């Protein structure tokens, strides 16, 4: 023990990768349990006095910690070409990737689902979700429809062929008759998937069993969510969400480790808010303040390069994240980005048609029409990137963190003050010492 779940509190890109990397050196296993290569985590590491940047999509960020076993759980959807591209890229930079384990029950993203993702978005026009176009939605839909392809199917060619045939029977009709696009050939799909089988074989495992045994031995397991609370398919701003469970509960279904074994939940909360793709966003800024956040915070997508929509901190969202995930600790990231503002607004509640909402509105329509009610806190001008204790922070930056902490209802245990691995203030220990 312990088992720690790490989630995003907002709409993604909160800095989960950096936080996982920070914990990576003290954990034995890092598990990705949901999503696929729609995620994009940037980790900045100091190596021989130089800053090195790593962009990870499919692999858990723990792969950068030499003693950590990275695990891709059953809840993940895997684009095999991306998996090997990413592994090769890391190997070329001297990262040891040989410990990676992949669940036999994880689903693969066949090439036809990338096509369907893109043509569906085009077809939806102005009603589009703004997906990453990686085939995530169609692959999770196949899983639920029971026409998905699993990793283990690559090791039984007869079964694989049957499953691809079954899936394409319908999909090719859809592609040709609705989307007016060329379908896929069964042989091509089977051949492409089989080409990865031999290289993948040593990584394939019953990862639920591996993790259960690791916890029995007293080892530490960190579950790293892709995406975030408001992109969760059940608890997010549906339909403007991803197609998996990105909240803490998803760690259990996505890994085969039960809720009774989870000890703590760390949520990563950016000091302001960003969102990529379509969907409601009450504190979004369309003015020069939004541009300030985008420029200062370098808010451009790691996966698609799209400019991220930017806005102020929304503590209604933060409070919701505390409740839905059972957050024990928050990490506030990118506090340094707010340096140099006269006033820092914090959304404390919404006004919907003259009615105050302190909690997330029940109806999505109300959320679309929510106007933020702000509290204006005083800003600070001092460079905070060298601060390493809470007391090092200027009084107004401390007051900002304490007010946010009060509003979100769980303690802020760490504060990011820069992208680098060591640019963090550790206020309280993040690893619980729990004996079961
Ligand atoms: P993830 O998807 O949640 O892992 O987050 P991303 O990697 O997509 O986006 C977070 C970005 O913020 C990355 O470029 C990080 O290097 C950067 N970052 C993380 N923490 C901090 C911080 O405290 N300050 C600053 N300035 N940048 C940070
Ligand atoms: P990380 O892990 C931010 C968004 C997409 C789109 C919606 C659905 O880096 O925080 P999808 O391709 O998943 O079907 O797209 O979800 N989205 C993300 N936004 N960060 C992410 O991951 C995201 N993964 C998906 O932009 O709006
Ligand atoms: Mg990201």
UniProtKB/TrEMBL annotation:
Source domain of life: Bacteria
Binding sites annotated in the UniProt record for GTP: 12-18, 40-42, 308, 334-336, 416-418
Ligand binding (Mg(2+)): 13, 40
Binding site for IMP: 13-16, 38-41, 132, 146, 227, 242, 306
Catalysis performed (reactions): IMP + L-aspartate + GTP = N(6)-(1,2-dicarboxyethyl)-AMP + GDP + phosphate + 2 H(+)
Names of the cofactor(s): Mg(2+)
Record family assignment: Belongs to the adenylosuccinate synthetase family.
Name of the protein in question: Adenylosuccinate synthetase
Species annotation: Terrabacter ginsenosidimutans
Gene designation: purA
